Amino acid sequence: MKYMVGKTSHGDAVFAVQGENAIDLTALDANVGTDLMALINDPALVESVVAKMDGAPSVPVASITPALPVAQPGTIICLGLNYTDHIKEGGYDIPDYPALFMRGRNSIMAAGSPMVRPNCSDKLDYEAELMLIIGKGGRHISEADALSHVFGYTVFNDGSVRDYQRKTHQWTPGKNFDQTGAIGPFVVTPDDLPEGASGLKIESRVGDEILQSSNTGNMIWSAAQTIATISEYATLEPGDHIALGTPPGVGHAKKPNPRWLIPGEVVDIEIEGIGICSNPIVDEADFVRGVAAE
Fold first, then answer.
1. Distance between the two ends of the chain, CA-based, in angstroms?
2. Domain Fumarylacetoacetase-like C-terminal spans what residues (predicted)?
3. Range of the domain at 44
4. Angle 243-280-206 (CA atoms, 0-180°, nearest 5)?
């Protein structure tokens, strides 16, 4: 199943995507709600609403304004170094243990929303990433059982303000500027993808310019290994998000000059079988003026 959360002229809803069209699941059953949490928490509700889809009316996917798949995710954990060539281009040693950091709620936003370059820096970088959403929580999850805890996979652009990321050994500042982490718009359940969403082409682009191009099969730590590792120290909850790192080709490592994102550009992150997360780049001053005018 491919899900999308968003807004149409009829309001906020959860949709089941079928090609270029989508069925409003919230209209079929109000218990679905307006983000994925009800479906994540209640597999029986999933079965019930799927049974009602046959013959249900649909709307064009293009008519839906994307929203976050989970409106208020509890924990957002990101894996920083998970592709060997990306580790090398950043000047790091290949780690024995995954580099993990966290993002706050204000740092993320939906596909289609502006990605904001802050006033204090022009070094806004892109990072194409596979992201998973936890369906079944737990602690001390074994690698063998880990994938049964996944509700679905989505696309993430881990927008990073590089000079602030490098200010300390902890990456928190550069990874938590408001409105820099784009998620969605689609969430695909594991039954529609290869095991662990491995072997999928992953790419970032601005227009015809290909910035990154790799394959999720090149990850050092798989989805299952990452879930197992994180659950050694943290209890995972339904709706938690885990981002699985970016491949080589990021802007700060481009030669001879870094390739930063510029206001007016649109950055696309695409993962095979899941979809495209597309976001315009805006300057913070313009973004603030736009919000104030609404």
1. 35
2. 75-282
3. 2-66
4. 80
pLDDT band at 294 (very low <50, low <70, confident <90, very high): very low
Give the span between the Cα atoms of 182 and 188, in whole angstroms: 16
Say which residues have a Cβ less than 8 Å from residue 179's Cβ, sequence separation at least 6: 106, 107, 109, 113, 114, 115, 116, 287
pLDDT band for position 292 (cuts 50, 70, 90): very low
Distance CA 45, CA 233 (A): 31
Check residue 291 and give its pLDDT. 54
b/e sequence 228-248, b meaning 16+ C-beta within 10 Å = bbbbeeeebebbbbbbbbbbb
Q: What is the pTM of this model?
A: 0.96
Number of structural domains the chain divides into: 2
Classify residue 246: in a domain, yes or no: yes
Looking at residue 128, its amino acid is A
Looking at 66, 92, 121, the residue that finishes a domain is 66
Residue 261's nearest CA partner among 286, 279, 247, 246 is: 279
Looking at the fold, whether 44 and 175 belong to one and the same domain comes out as: no
Q: What residues form DSSP beta bridges with 154?
A: 131
Which domain-ending residue is among 66, 89, 107? 66
* Claim to verify: residue 167 and residue 286 sit in the same structural domain: yes
Determine phi and psi for 39, rounding to 5 degrees: -70, -35
Same domain, 51 and 92: no
Gap between the Cα atoms of 273 and 199, Å rounded:
10
264 & 197 share domain = yes
Tens-place pLDDT, residues 111-141: 999 999 999 999 999 999 999 999 999 999 9
Query: CB 67: neighbour CB atoms within 10 A?
Result: 24
Domain CATH number, residue 239: 3.90.850.10
pLDDT digits (tens, 9 = 90+) for 138-162: 999 999 999 999 999 999 999 999 9
Q: Tell whether 71 is covered by a domain.
A: no
The residue count of the chain comes to 294
Q: Residues 184-193: pLDDT tens digits?
A: 999 999 999 9
